[in-house]
Amino acid sequence: MFLAKPAYAGEEMGAPQILAGNDQWFISSDMVTMWVIMVLLALVCIIGTRHMRKHPSGLQNFLETVVELLHGMVVDIMGEKRAKRYGPFLMTFFLMILCSNYIGLLPLSGMHLPGYVAPTANLSVTAGLALIVIVGYFIIGFMDGRMAFIKHYFLTPMLPMNLLDTITRPLSLALRLYGNIFGEEMILGVLFGILPFFLPLPMYALSVMFGAIQAYVFTLLACIYWEEASNVEGH
């Protein structure tokens, strides 16, 4: 994200702004937004778990409910043992993507207005997230699958297909998330620009649902890929 400028839709569409930098590096508004999201998530978790109670209420109860739901999804795919090891990372992935999707729905945000935007409406961001997934796939494969993973992936006549699959997976993850969030931002911008305020609200409500679905799908696929790498013999 510091090496090349991201592929925005153009300044005329209210694209994320370059806040500082030169020809070698830059800091854009969506990068700042991502850091703000990470800091806020960390603060919420710290505040919600400072005084843990046996019978939770308020923020602690909300956080425990979210964790239980996400943990259940990971357990269903990876099993209890692997869920304890990789679940926290995958759940953080989900929350980060979800908040990134939703921040574009807040007032004065979105691709159609200057200022902060949904980071996941930037292909550079979704490509980075997809790269983390595919790198994690190989790390987990070597750690858990070991020789079974090496034989399954490298020492097989299917090696060309495995390499093609390795290329298409991150492309699919990155383009799916980027395309849906970017398209949603553009459609909302057009609708709010040409229609009275209350008419685009049904599309706004759908965007709330789609933002959660996209975060869930991305995390679910990452979970499936990592389970496949850690349990090659089971496949």
Commentary on this structure:
The protein has helices at 29-48, 58-103, 123-145, 147-153, 159-194, 201-230, and strands at residues 18-21, 26-28. By secondary structure, the protein is mainly alpha-helical. The protein has one domain (31-43, 64-232). A hairpin with a 4-residue loop joins β1 (18-21) and β2. The two termini are 35 Å apart.
Instruction: Let me know the largest β-sheet.
Output: 2 strands, antiparallel
Average predicted confidence as pLDDT: 82
H/E order of the elements?
EEHHHHHH
Spatial strand sequence of the major β-sheet: 1-2
* Overall geometry: globular
Throw out a few tags for this protein.
235 residues; mainly alpha; two-stranded antiparallel sheet; disordered N terminus; proton-transporting ATP synthase activity, rotational mechanism; ATP synthesis; transmembrane helix; ion transport; ATP synthase subunit a
